[in-house]
């Protein structure tokens, strides 16, 4: 499908690897010029080189932590005039409800709620003035069905979801569509980390840990960054302007819900 967004410009946060990279590659395949972001310069530059060579689009790199004020300032300086914003950041560590104190929650809120809100506040006015824009926030399927060991993530991402629910409906008349993508388990470093936690807790090997989690997914596999990115690119396309304020789950059917 022709997405109709060739020559648009996108900022994709936390895009040197994982789901962020999947989104960046899908947008590049549609002809979108990119501002990529990651905390490790070498990994970021390697990703940028591969995307430039494969898709022949412009790629600007900003090595920065989007959860910090300085990091956001650097990103915004490179992202002037962007048409598409993909908000993404690594999730906070797992644990038990009794493990976390105030500082843990503040760190989670900074990365997974307040940072994407700050990016939207900075970039939405320009999109509205130009009469077109797309924002996709990568959150988590835990927004729909909380995961007990991911209480920090549950809390911060639910807060972002509430913010988007109201904001998306205020800017839609200006041609700007904001939506959230809610991943379940995908084959990324994050999944590896969680699988290693299961491995350590149960005294099993990594293959057994993965098999155990895959058995809970009706699709019987983890998702891929490529298929996640393709969904993101569609939400950023000319065809998705009537999709507003939605929470779209990509989890292989793991969320057992009718609606």
Indicate the topology.
Elements: E1 9-12, H1 18-29, E2 33-38, H2 41-55, E3 59-63, H3 69-78, E4 84-87, H4 102-130, E5 133-138, H5 151-171, E6 176-183, H6 189-202, H7 206-214, H8 225-235, E7 247-250
Parallel strand pairs: 1-2, 1-4, 2-3, 4-5, 5-6, 6-7
Question: What this model shows, in words?
Answer:
The protein is an alpha/beta fold and 259 residues long. The chain has a seven-stranded parallel sheet, with helices on both faces. The longest helix has 29 residues. Strand 1, helix 1 and strand 2 form a beta-alpha-beta unit. The protein starts with 8 loop residues before the first strand and ends in a 9-residue tail after the last strand. Helices cover 47% and strands 14% of the residues. The mean pLDDT is 95.
Highlighted features:
259 residues, alpha/beta, seven-stranded parallel sheet, 8 helices, 7 strands, globular
Summarize the structure.
By secondary structure, the protein is an alpha/beta fold.
Outline: globular
Radius of gyration: 18 Å
Secondary-structure class: alpha/beta
Distance between the termini: 28 Å
State the helix count: 8
Helical coverage, percent range:
40-55%
Tell me the major beta sheet.
7 strands, parallel
- The average pLDDT is 95
Q: Which H/E pattern describes the elements?
A: EHEHEHEHEHEHHHE
The strand line-up of the biggest sheet is 3-2-1-4-5-6-7
User: Which ranges are low-confidence, i.e. pLDDT below 50, for 5 or more consecutive residues?
Assistant: none
The number of strands is 7
Strand content: 5-15%
